[in-house]
Design brief:
Radius of gyration of chain B: 24 Å
Low-confidence stretches of chain A: none
Shape of chain B: globular
Helix content of chain A: 40-55%
CATH class of the largest domain in chain B: Alpha Beta
Distance between the termini of chain B: 65 Å
Radius of gyration of chain A: 23 Å
Number of strands of chain A: 11
Distance between the termini of chain A: 51 Å
Low-confidence stretches of chain B: none
Order of helices and strands of chain B: EEEHHEEHHHHHEHEEHHEEHHHHHEHE
Strand order of the largest sheet of chain B: 1-2-6-3-5-4
Helix content of chain B: 40-55%
CATH architecture of the largest domain in chain B: 2-Layer Sandwich
Structural class of chain B: alpha+beta
CATH class of the largest domain in chain A: Alpha Beta
Mean pLDDT of chain B: 95
Number of domains of chain A: 2
Number of helices of chain B: 16
Strand content of chain B: 15-25%
Largest interface: A-B, 87 and 80 residues
Number of domains of chain B: 2
CATH topology of the largest domain in chain A: Cytochrome Bc1 Complex, Chain A, domain 1
Largest sheet of chain A: 6 strands, mixed
Structural class of chain A: alpha+beta
Mean pLDDT of chain A: 95
Oligomer: heterodimer
CATH superfamily of the largest domain in chain B: Metalloenzyme, LuxS/M16 peptidase-like
Chain lengths: 431, 453
Amino acid sequence: MSSLRAAIPIQTSRLENGLLVTLSPDRTAPIVAVNIWYHVGSANEREGRTGFAHLFEHMLFQGSEHVAANEHFELIQRAGGTLNGSTWLDRTNYFETVPSQQLELALWLEADRMGRLLPAMTQEKLDTQRDVVKNERRWSVDNQPYGSWWEKLPALCFPPSHPFHHSLMGSMEDLSAASLEDVAAFFRTWYTPDNAVLSIAGDVDPDEALELVERHFGSIPRGNGRPPLAPMAVAPTFGAPSREVVADDVAVPRVFLACRTPVFGSQGYYPASAIASMLGTGRGSRLHRSLVREGQLASAVSAFTFDLSKGSDLLVIDATARPGVSVEALEEGIVSVLDELRRSGPRPGELDRVLAQTETDFVSSMQSAGDRAEQLSRFATYHGDPGLLNEQVQRYRAVKDSDVRATAAERLGPDNRASLVYVPRNGEASP
Amino acid sequence: MSAVVVRPVPGPSRPYRFPSFERITLPNGLELIIAPVKRLPLVTIRFVLDVGARQEPRNAAGLASLTASALAEGTERLDAGALAEEFELLGGSLSTYATWDATHARTTVLSSRLEPALSLLSEVVRLPAFATREVERLKEERLAELLELKTEPRGLADERFASFLYRPTSRLRIQEGGSERTVGQLSVDDCRAWHTAQFAPSATALVIAGDVDVDHVVSLTSDGLADWRSPSTAVPGVDDGPDREYSSVRLLDRPGAPQSELRLGHVGLRRNHPDYFDVVVMNAILGGVFNSRINMNLRERHAFTYGAFSAFEWRRDAGPFLVSTAVATPVTAQAIREVLTELARMQSAPPTDDELTLSTSYLDGVFPIRFETTDAIAGALASLRVLRLENNFYDTYREKVRSVTAQSVVLAAQQHIHLDRMQVLAVGDRAHVEPMLSELSLGPTSIVGDDDE
């Protein structure tokens, strides 16, 4: 890698029960990060149980055979660590960063809940977390302007039969229906060592760490294999434009425009990711220049990829209208920026600027043990190869103007645009 | 299954020291704060100026923020687009902003690009263009943000609550970035005048953290910044006293809202208060860590909310102390009652040993994790300067946290939480919430609009 003195050291092994373990020692500070990815997310939920993967993530903090409810938080914070978990469409992660002498505590806690969760599950805990999650939904979706975009955009971009179509946060009805039997079945099916990746980054001796991993995780039995997902494949483009208008309690219009793009980590992903930066990262980007600074149609713009690893990724443009600007004018502005890139391709030097920022951001993120462990888990889960982390800068560097031009031609056209449009419920620009 | 039931015991901890740094003042008053951190080939460059919203005239509220934002929109040499491209070419992104206490301009680049990045960032701070078109646009964007805020309950509650605490004549009564009225009056000439009067080398520190040598940085700055001169301007005093010496309730109506955003608190303490460490530990126990009294009560015991926390905002002037949460509408009054109960309990029931050590061990142990990146280290060094902390502040932090006792925690709660002048703000559905609030009889209740002054 050009900018790092040496590649990030990465060591990979697999326990007999199938648990994939990746290690990346860096002994400059007495800090170590533990990160587990379970290859399960909202895509794996069954009919009538939307939101369950996320509710289940909450239950993992409610104790296990040797750990009391909320004691996981208590023990890690008492150890001087930080921790959390998160649920995504196709994975759920749990992570701790702790002073390095507390590595074993973090491993033991993760192993106790991977191996012995169910003895601690009670109806009362489930009822409490159900209410907490309902409040999380109110807080992040229902009582938040534009808050429903997280569930409306995937619904617009994937057909109803597709595992990415339904809401990650789930409906209130489905959350109410979740039972202890669901908890047990979900745990037995998905929370198994052979469906997980454990990454450890920071101040560790790899041999000692592997011995601890074997001691705490080695006896957890393998699962029965992943049940097949419903078919994930979709056409590379939508085939026709689509548009959904949402009247909401908002002050100004906002547009989310999505295009289907090649999945995370694939050959085609890198030009698509570079296009997202070119369009919407920073004050030098095309959308900022055209819509914010020159056209003054938008007060804020960004563009990013969802980084989905199955079926199709999405490249999303997010633009908030300036007061008094119609949603149609804003959409026209976005479309003309997309068309310009399709027509003329990158300008001289434009791709170099984008890649220079990407490289700095990548090296910068490697400073944090937690970020490093998270990236290892990502590449190990999606591609079976955490070593891909060391190839990212080169893969971006390999993108050429012609790749950007080809990807823009294939993926940014009118047949591959889905727009989710928020407008003020009481007409334009009334608060 | 043969489970491992013996809980792991930690081995000895490895020593950690906050990175050592040098502070050097150039003849023109500019201070260099340099921390060599040789881990990855990165460097963070950060100008920090003692130019904050606190020192603005009340009627020009928002001027420090507008001026700071405008720094990124072009220099005498480069227009806005060209400047953005220059930073991108170096692989950096430029961030400029003002807080209550300071103006910041920063970027992080690969250390091989230190020299051009430092030169470009210096140009941004010293020679901004203040083009009329860009400044007027930034004003419009701030006004748009204020308009959007009216439909955003969380941000609205934060901003309105922080303002209500202070006297109507104080600058602190208006939010950090200014109000519709004050921002509407600002002009490009105001930005120019503010820059000329306030951006003096003696009011500035240049913080550099990363893969650099001190001597090299000093030689670069001696070449590039030594000729920077301008008069220093006296900073007026700030009125950070509380507006009301009695408790009161305000309700901002959001018809049909499924949750009430709640804020409870009052004016807190200045950062240089001698009880700082006692208050930090007390707050961690009260509402700082996940297993704090307030979060355990409201989230895990009652399931009223996704989360509840308390905080003291530490600034040169006395910032707010507040408890913050969002609860389901029907339990609004119950939730307020539980918060008040916890505040009172903090003053009467000393923390158990478990509670005390949870918070002190957390604050002690998490300390190195806070400074993993060059950006975080540069930020900590900027705080040292802006808040006038001792040079050994970071070296003695952990020991001072550990020496806080149960007794000093209770004393801190008794002296610095004022139940007789709690200000409560609810942003929620008035039809449901107003009758509940009046039953609480906390003090006079008023209905407030969403206008920002």
